[in-house]
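Action item from last week, closing it out:
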Amino acid sequence: MSRLIVSRRVKFYGEVQGVNFRRNFAALANSLKLKGWVKNLSDGSVEAHIEGEPQVIQSMIHRSCTELFPAKVEKFQSQEDELEDLYEFVVIR
């Protein structure tokens, strides 16, 4: 049976730059075997593209908001995105 792979684009707002959020986010994503990327945006938010099974992505988003100290996620926006068929999860600098 094949697994359903989907993609989400997520923007995180709050204290998410300068607190190792991207590095910790990528480490968590890799531990969950997700693919994608994460990068800082000029408005102070962080954007991520995540590919994987829907329930694993949902867990990743929840854990990103509650476990990646000292970052403080105040809110996030999530939407469906096109699959980029990536092979790993990376931090874009």
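Closing note: The CA atoms of residues 8 and 20 lie 21 Å apart.
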